[in-house]
Amino acid sequence: MTIRTQSLEWREREKMADYSQKVTSTFNERMRLNRVRRRKEKLRFWDEFMIIPKWLMGLVGFLYLLALGIAIPVNLAQRHNPYGNDMFPPELRDNPVLASFALAGMVTLVSICMTILIFLTAYINRDAYRRGMNAALWTVVALVLLPETLIGGHLLYFLMREPLPYPCPQCSASVSARFNFCPNCKCNLQPSCPQCKREVAELDKFCPFCGSDLGASRIELTPTPSTL
Ligand SMILES: [Zn+2]
Ligand SMILES: [Zn+2]
């Protein structure tokens, strides 16, 4: 009785291990595919930067000026304090102008770090939306991981993000980079040369690698095994 229960339990456990292995390998395949397709994207820093909302840039700039506008007058007001401002080392304590510059430098440094984090998070929010991912979820992940891992959540996003959708070469409908066929016109989005199996563009007439006639064998075109 107990032996049978044990063997059943054992089999169950084996099944679970099998299943989790399958899930892991599917996950790895998917990640590899994402990386392959993302490599084709030509992202330019400035264009990417501009997807950050303008109002956020304005707000950050405004907060920076506000921080300076508060810190410096407060520091200058300490001038009349007979003991000096004990926030500064003795060399700066009696020199309000120099102290103000030091303070402005500190405020700027902190602001730059904060701005990078804010812009990075805003970028993730917009970029995830653009890629058809869950923008709210990824923003929360980035923010939740912020205190312990700093930009760990952000890095995770950049490792896991899905490729950008692009226009179908035949009908220009926007297709997800995950599709093998266009849902609108059935255009093969991941064709490979039947001769040499290398990936070719959808509308190539001849294979650029081996010169085989793709027009004649268009029906045979199959998704490249290496990118599946
Ligand atoms: Zn199409
Ligand atoms: Zn070929």
Helical content stands at 55-70%
Gyration radius (Cα, Å) is 29 Å
- Mass-distribution shape: flat
Strand line-up across the major sheet = 1-2
So how many helices?
8
Q: Point out poorly predicted stretches.
A: 219-228
Q: What small molecules accompany the polymer chains?
A: zinc ion
Q: Give the termini distance in whole angstroms.
A: 47 Å
Total beta-strand segments: 4
Mean pLDDT rating: 82
SSE string:
HHHHHHHHEEEE
What's the story with the biggest beta sheet? 2 strands, antiparallel
- Tell me the count of domains: 2
SS-based class: mainly alpha
What does this entry look like structurally?
- By secondary structure, the chain is mainly α.
- It has two domains: 45-162, no CATH class; 168-228, no CATH class.
- Helix content is 56%, strand content 4%.
- A two-stranded antiparallel sheet has the order 1-2.
- The protein is flat.
- It starts with a helix and ends in a 5-residue tail after the last strand.
- The site of one zinc ion (ZN) has 8 residues, from loops.
- One zinc ion is lined by residues 193, 195-196, 198, 207, 209-210, 212.
